[in-house]
Amino acid sequence: MTEIRKTAFLNALTTAVYVTLVGAFMSWGGQVQLGRGNFFLIPVALLLLFVFSAALTGYLVFGKPVLWYLDGKKKEALELLFTTLGFFSVITTLAILLLVIFTR
Q1: 30 pLDDT more than 80
Q2: Other C-beta atoms within 10 Å of 39: how many?
Q3: pTM for this model (two decimals)
Q4: DSSP string spanning 12-63?
């Protein structure tokens, strides 16, 4: 496996693990009724989590490709970006298939 593919796989896997942890936290928070009542910090906390998630996943998917592109490594940058997105789409498809299989 080439260095670009290894990096792409690691970025896609790290993003998927982070999304899984956030999803698990949100599921757990709903079960224990975390943030009961009409408290103004509930939407603030969710928006902060949303902004942090966008920044982190944006960095994981686009960070190194943008740096490489700006350094003149345009072919490698695009290969890394599309390989990362490819691995992430495979992980997403597997997650959807598991959802369909285990919710029947």
Answers
A1: no
A2: 10
A3: 0.85
A4: HHHHHHHHHHHHHHHHHHHHTTTT-SS-THHHHHHHHHHHHHHHHHHHHHHH
